[in-house]
Design brief:
single chain, 543 residues, alpha/beta, Aldehyde Dehydrogenase, Chain A, domain 1, Aldehyde Dehydrogenase, Chain A, domain 2, seven-stranded mixed beta sheet, six-stranded mixed beta sheet, 22% strand, binds glyceraldehyde-3-phosphate
C-alpha cells in the first residue's frame, strides 16, 4: 500500500488474501541433503523455518508463517561431505579436475538448463524466505542464470587464449589454469541464490570440487535444485551441508581439507573461520564482507538525481545490500532541501508483502531486526538526531518503516555500525575533509558515491578515494553490477576480487607444462597433441 493509506498495524494479509499464484501448497519439510552424488534422507534434528511474512488472524494478531524445516546436520555429516569432495578431487587425479574444459562446460550447461525449469518455485521461495519483492526475486534468479552463461563464455575465452604453446629462451610451454582442490562456498541471506552461485559455479567450472552451505536464512530455496546438482555433476563434485555454523562449519575448517574458502558474510565470522584452518597458508580465501558505503552530496549537485539515487541506494531491498548507501554526507548549504525531498520520497514508498504490485518495503527476515533498528534510532535521538519523516521507525513485528535520521554525528552508533536495514543516516558537513576523514578512518573500504558537477572537485576526490575504496560512483548509487565489472573492497570489506572473469582466476592457479626444445621433446609433445592424449597439454580450440 502507498503511504497515504498506510496502517502498519493491518499490514499483514490473511491467508485468503495471498494471491493463489504465490500460496505455498504444503510446507517444505526438507529432509534431503546431497553427499557423494547421493541424496540422503535426514531423520535427526531440524531447524524450523519461519517467513518474515506474518499471517493475520483477522482479530489484530499476526504470526510469522511457518514454511517448513531443514536438517540440522552434525559434525559427522559435515566430515562425510568434505571427504566426498576430497574423494572426487582425489588429489587432482579425479574425473572432474582432469576433465577437459569443454566437457566441464557441458556439465554446467546441463545444470543451468535444469535450474531454469525451477524458476517459479525458487522465486516464490525467495519471497517467502527472505521477504524480497517479486521483481527483485525474479531479477536475482535471472541474473544468476545470466552469470552462469557469461561464466561459460568467459571460460571459453580464457581457454582459447591459453590453447597455444609459447616458446621462450629455448623452452616450450603451455600455460593454463588448474583447480585449487576443495572449495567451501557459503553465501549470505540477502542474495542467497546469486551470491552463493557467483562463487560456487566458477569454482566448479574450473575443476574444483565443492561443499556448499547456505546461510541461516534462504535455505529452502536451494531444495528444488538438489536433484539438478546430483544429475548434472559427477558424484562428490557438489555436496551440501545444512545446520548451525558452529556444528558443521567449524569441523569443516579444522579438518584442514578446505583448499579455498568462499564466504560472503561478516568479517567477524570470516576471522573465526580462517583461524580454524590448521594450515592457514594453504588456504585461499575469497571473501565479501562488511561495508558502510558513504554518499557525498556536494552543493552543486543535481538535487533530484541525488535524492533519487540516494533513495535507491539506501533502501532497495530495505537497505539489506552489502553495497547499500549506509550513510549520506550532505553539504550544510543544501541539507534542508535534500532532507525535505528525500523525506517525501521515503514517505511515498510502497510498503507491503513481497508479491504486492510495485512494493518497495517488505518484511525483514533477521530475528529482532526491528528492535535493533529502534535502538539505533533511540541512541541517535539521545545525541540530538531526529527522525525526519513522519512514518519513520514505525514497526509491526517484522515490518519496519524506513527512517531518515538527521543530524547524525560521530558519537552515535549509526555513524559507524552497518545497520543493514531501512535506516538512512544523514550527516551535514561544511568542509569536504569531514566525509574524507570518515572514509579514511572507517574500517570498511568498499565503495562511495559522489554527487556533484564540478569536474575539478570530482576529479580531486576520485584520485585519493580510489586508493581507499574499490569503486567510486559518480552521480550514481553504489552497486555490484554489471557482473563483468570487478567487485571487491579493502580493509574489512573483502578479500580477493569477483567478477565473471576474475572469479575464474581466484578459484584456480596458473600451471604450466614446460620442456626444453630438444628434438626428442618435440616428437613427444607433438605425439601428445596430435592424438589428444592430454586434456591440459592440448591446442584444441573451443568454438
Ligand atoms: O549484498 C551485496 C550484493 O553483492 C550487492 O549487489 O549491488 O547488485 O545489489 P547489488
Amino acid at each position: 500500500m502507498s503511504n497515504s493509506s498506510f496502517n502498519i498495524q493491518t499490514i499483514f494479509p490473511k491467508t485468503s488474501q495471498i494471491p493463489k499464484k504465490f500460496k505455498l501448497i504444503a510446507k517444505y519439510e526438507q529432509k534431503e541433503y546431497l553427499i557423494g552424488g547421493e541424496i540422503r534422507i535426514w531423520n535427526g534434528a531440524v531447524q524450523q523455518v519461519y517467513s518474515p511474512v506474518c499471517i493475520s488472524d483477522g482479530k489484530g494478531g499476526a504470526k510469522q508463517k511457518a514454511l517448513g524445516s531443514y536438517p540440522l546436520l552434525t559434525e559427522k555429516e559435515a566430515i562425510e561431505a568434505i571427504n566426498a569432495a576430497q574423494h572426487a578431487y582425489n588429489n587432482g587425479f579425479g574425473q572432474w579436475p582432469t576433465m577437459s574444459v569443454e566437457q566441464r562446460i557441458k556439465h554446467v550447461e546441463d545444470f543451468v538448463f535444469r535450474m531454469a525449469q525451477k524458476r517459479d518455485e525458487v522465486v516464490n521461495l525467495l519471497m517467502w524466505e527472505i521477504g524480497k519483492n517479486l521483481s527483485d526475486s525474479e531479477k536475482e534468479f535471472d541474473r544468476t542464470i545470466d552469470y552462469i552463461k557469461d561464466t561459460i563464455e568467459a571460460l571459453k575465452e580464457l581457454d582459447r587464449n591459453s590453447s597455444r604453446l609459447v616458446i621462450e629462451k629455448g623452452i616450450l610451454a603451455q600455460i593454463r589454469r588448474a583447480p585449487l582442490g576443495v572449495v567451501l562456498c557459503m553465501g549470505p541471506y540477502n542474495y542467497p541464490l546469486n551470491e552463493t552461485f557467483t562463487t560456487l559455479i566458477p569454482a566448479l567450472i574450473m575443476g574444483n570440487t565443492t561443499v556448499f552451505k547456505p546461510a541461516k536464512m534462504g535455505v529452502l530455496l536451494h531444495k528444488p535444485l538438489l536433484e539438478a546438482f546430483r544429475d548434472a555433476f559427477p558424484p562428490g563434485v557438489v555436496n551440501t551441508v545444512y545446520g548451525d555454523g558452529k556444528a558443521v562449519v567449524g569441523p569443516l575448517m579444522s579438518s584442514g581439507k578446505v583448499d579455498s574458502l568462499a564466504f560472503i558474510g561478516s568479517s567477524r565470522v570470516a576471522n573465526i573461520l580462517k583461524h580454524q584452518h590448521p594450515r592457514l597458508h594453504r588456504m585461499r580465501s575469497v571473501l565479501g564482507l562488511d561495508a558502510k558505503n558513504a554518499a557525498i552530496i556536494l552543493p552543486d549537485t543535481d538535487m533530484d538525481l541525488a535524492v533519487n539515487e540516494s533513495l535507491l541506494g539506501a533502501l532497495s531491498y530495505n537497505g539489506q545490500r552489502c553495497t547499500a548507501l549506509k550513510i549520506l554526507f550532505v553539504h550544510k548549504s543544501i541539507a534542508h532541501i535534500f532532507l525535505e525531498k528525500l523525506s517525501t520520497k521515503i514517505e511515498n514508498l510502497k510498503i507491503g508483502m513481497p508479491w504486492d504490485d510495485g512494493v518497495q518495503i517488505t518484511p525483514l527476515p533477521e530475528d529482532g531486526k526491528a528492535s535493533y533498528l529502534t535502538d539505533l534510532i533511540k541512541d541517535a535521538e539521545s545525541f540530538g538526531a531526529k527522525v525526519m519523516n513522519p512514518s519513520g521507525g514505525k514497526f509491526n513485528a517484522t515490518v519496519f518503516f524506513p527512517a531518515l535520521l538527521y543530524p547524525v554525528s560521530p558519537q552515535m552508533r549509526v555513524y559507524n555500525e552497518e545497520q543493514f536495514g531501512p535506516l538512512v543516516p544523514v550527516v551535514p558537513f561544511d568542509d569536504i575533509q569531514e566525509p574524507l576523514d570518515y572514509i579514511t578512518n572507517s574500517n570498511y573500504g568498499q565503495q562511495a558515491s559522489l554527487f556533484g558537477n564540478n569536474p575539478e572537485q570530482i576529479a580531486s576526490l576520485i584520485d585519493p578515494l580510489v586508493n581507499q575504496l574499490s569503486r567510486i560512483n559518480i552521480n550514481s548509487q553504489c552497486q555490484r553490477g554489471p557482473d563483468i565489472f570487478p567487485f571487491t573492497g579493502r580493509k574489512d570489506s573483502a578479500e580477493n576480487t569477483l567478477s565473471v572473469s576474475d572469479a575464474l582466476k581466484v578459484f584456480s592457479i596458473r600451471a604450466l607444462v614446460a620442456a626444453k626444445l630438444t628434438e626428442s621433446n618435440k616428437i613427444l609433445i607433438n605425439n601428445i597433441l596430435q592424438d589428444n592424449k592430454s586434456n591440459f597439454l592440448s591446442t584444441d580450440f573451443i568454438l
